[in-house]
Amino acid sequence: MTPAGSLLVAQNLRKTYGSTPALDGASFSVHPGEIVAVMGPSGSGKSTLLHCLAGIVTPDAGTVSYGGRELSSMSDAERSALRRSDFGFVFQFGQLVPELTCVENVALPLRLDGVRRKEAERTALEWMERLEVGSSAGRRPGEVSGGQGQRVAVARALAASPKVIFADEPTGALDSLNGERVMELLTESARTAGTAVVLVTHEARVAAYSDRDIVVRDGRCLDAEYAV
Ligand code: ADP
Ligand code: MG
After folding, report:
1. Is 46 in the pocket of ligand 1 (CB under 6 A)?
2. Which of 127, 157, 190, 202 has the smallest number of Cβ neighbours within 10 A?
3. pLDDT tens, 37-59?
C-alpha cells in the first residue's frame, strides 16, 4: 500500500524496546502539504512512530521512504543533513536553547544551513511576528511564558521552510486557550507555506485543524474513522 504522490511513507514498522513492542506493523503516509493528526492512548507508539519517520530512531523492521528514498539506505551524515534541510521539529516543551534569545533560537536552523546572521534574524523575526511573538525577540526562553515559548518553537520549526514538520504533543503543556491558538497558528502557517505536518496530539479537537486523523493502537496505525 504505497499511496501515489506521498512524500513520506512508512511500511510495516516494527520496533521493540526490551520485550515491549512499541511499533508492531505500523504503516503511514503523508502527502506534500497535508496535515495528519496522530492520536491514540499514552504508550501506544505515537512518539516512536514520529521518531522513525524523522529518521531519529531506526526501526527493527519495515521501511521509511522520503521522496522515494529509503532512510535506511542513507548514511548517518546524509540523514542528519536531510533533517536539517527538509524537516522541522516541535516538541512538548519547546526545547529552546536557554542561552540564546528567542530570535536567535528561531534563526538557528537557518544559521546551521549557512544563512548569514542578519538575513537569518530578519526571516526569524518575520516568522515570530506571524506567530504573534515578535515582541519576545530579544528575551531569553526563561523570560517568556509557556505559550509564548511554544510559539517561538513553532516559528523555529517553520523558519527554514521545511517540507515536513514533526510536532509531538506541541500543546501538551499548555492550557486549552493557548493550546488552541498555537495549534491554529501552526496549521495555518503550515498551510500557507505548503508544509506537510505530522501532528501527534492527545486532543480530539485537533481534528478541526487536520486534513486526516489516524489512531495508533498497540503499535499499529488505524484510520480514525474505523478506530472507534
Ligand atoms: P506514546 O508516544 O504513544 O505515548 P511511545 O512511542 O513513547 O508511546 O512508547 C511506546 C512504548 O514503547 C511504550 O511502552 C514505551 O514505554 C516504550 N518505549 C518508548 N521509547 C522507549 C525507550 N527509549 N526505551 C524503552 N522503552 C521505550
Ligand atoms: Mg509520546
Report:
1. yes
2. 202
3. 999 999 999 999 999 999 999 99
What per-residue confidence (pLDDT) applies to 2? 55
User: Is the pTM value of this prediction over 0.85?
Assistant: yes
* Cα(206)–Cα(80) distance, integer angstroms: 30
State if residue 72 touches ligand 1 by the CB under 6 angstroms criterion: no
73 vs 153: CA distance, rounded Å: 30
Q: How many CB atoms lie within 10 A of CB 210?
A: 20
Cβ of 93 below 6 Å from ligand 1: no
What the block records as the C-alpha cell of 131 is 506567530
How are strands ordered across the β-sheet holding 35-39?
Answer: 87-90, 164-168, 196-200, 35-39, 212-217, 220-223
Pocket test for ligand 1, best of 13, 16, 20, 220 (most atoms within 8 A of CB): 20
